[in-house]
UniProtKB/TrEMBL annotation:
GO terms for biological process: 'de novo' IMP biosynthetic process. It comes from Magnetofaba australis IT-1. This is Phosphoribosylglycinamide formyltransferase. N(1)-(5-phospho-beta-D-ribosyl)glycinamide binds at G7, S8, N9. Its EC number is 2.1.2.2. PANTHER family: PHOSPHORIBOSYLGLYCINAMIDE FORMYLTRANSFERASE. The gene is purN. It catalyses: N(1)-(5-phospho-beta-D-ribosyl)glycinamide + (6R)-10-formyltetrahydrofolate = N(2)-formyl-N(1)-(5-phospho-beta-D-ribosyl)glycinamide + (6S)-5,6,7,8-tetrahydrofolate + H(+). One of its GO terms (cellular component) is cytosol. SUPFAM superfamilies: Formyltransferase. Belongs to the GART family. InterPro entries: Formyl_transf_N, Formyl_transf_N_sf, GART, GART_AS. The lineage of its organism: Bacteria, Pseudomonadati, Pseudomonadota, Magnetococcia, Magnetococcales. The record marks D140 as: Raises pKa of active site His. It comes from the Bacteria. Residues 2-177 form the Formyl transferase N-terminal domain.
Length: 199
């Protein structure tokens, strides 16, 4: 699991592993930031952690190579990005194709990138939400596993909206990981199927 910050999605996944909903375990939490609170959450739960500071590397390729070496040493089946604030190289994404997933706080393909809650408010859309998707080389793109819709209220600011979206992230990210861990996800023409069926 790769994080850069608070790790509330990590917490949601840890909780669903703990209560048996997700048949698997989190082998390691890796952060590019030493002060990420998610590292504390992981350590308190007895999960191994590692800091790989991107500033210590000359290039994205070198940083990503260090990430790959660490992840592959653990033989993880699935790599989860959750608030990991580094753009990954094509080489990294290709290495984990089909087993690299991300959560993003908008209804993709609308509003990729950063500060997307404010962008949704500024665009005047009535609904936003969150997306869990397989990662492809383009940022915030790839076959969509799960989405949840969140209404935008008349007096919403970015922080209020982000908080409501985050609650839904905590619901659909564990669901997506559960389906993956149960071997129930596949893709056909870039559409994600569950148990071989559209859902
Ligand atoms: C989430 O909104 C995620 O979608 C975004 O960054 C936030 C991370 O939150 N990319 P947390 O670290 O899981 O609390």
């Amino acid at each position: 699991m790769l994080i850069s910050g608070s790790g509330s999605n990590l917490q949601a996944l840890m909780d669903r592993v703990e209560d048996g909903t997700i048949p698997g375990r989190i082998v390691r939490v890796i952060s590019n930031k030493a002060d990420a609170y998610g590292l504390t959450r992981a350590q308190e739960a007895g999960i191994d952690t590692l800091v790989i500071d991107h500033k210590a590397y000359d290039s994205r390729e070198a940083f990503d190579a260090a990430l790959i070496a660490a992840i592959d040493a653990d033989e993880a089946d699935l790599v989860c990005l959750a608030g990991f604030m580094r753009v990954l190289t094509g080489g990294f994404v290709r290495h984990y194709v089909g087993r690299l997933i991300n959560v993003h706080p908008s209804l993709l393909p609308a509003f990729p990138g950063l500060k997307v809650q404010q962008k949704a408010i500024d665009a005047g859309v009535r609904f936003s939400g969150c997306t869990v998707h397989f990662v492809e080389e383009e940022v915030d793109a790839g076959p969509i596993i799960a989405q949840a819709v969140v209404p935008i209220l008349p007096d919403d600011d970015a922080s209020a909206l982000a908080g409501r979206i985050l609650k839904q992230e905590h619901r659909i990210y564990p669901l997506a990981v559960k389906l993956f861990a149960e071997g129930r996800l596949s893709t056909r023409n870039r559409t994600v199927l569950v148990d071989g069926q559209p859902w």
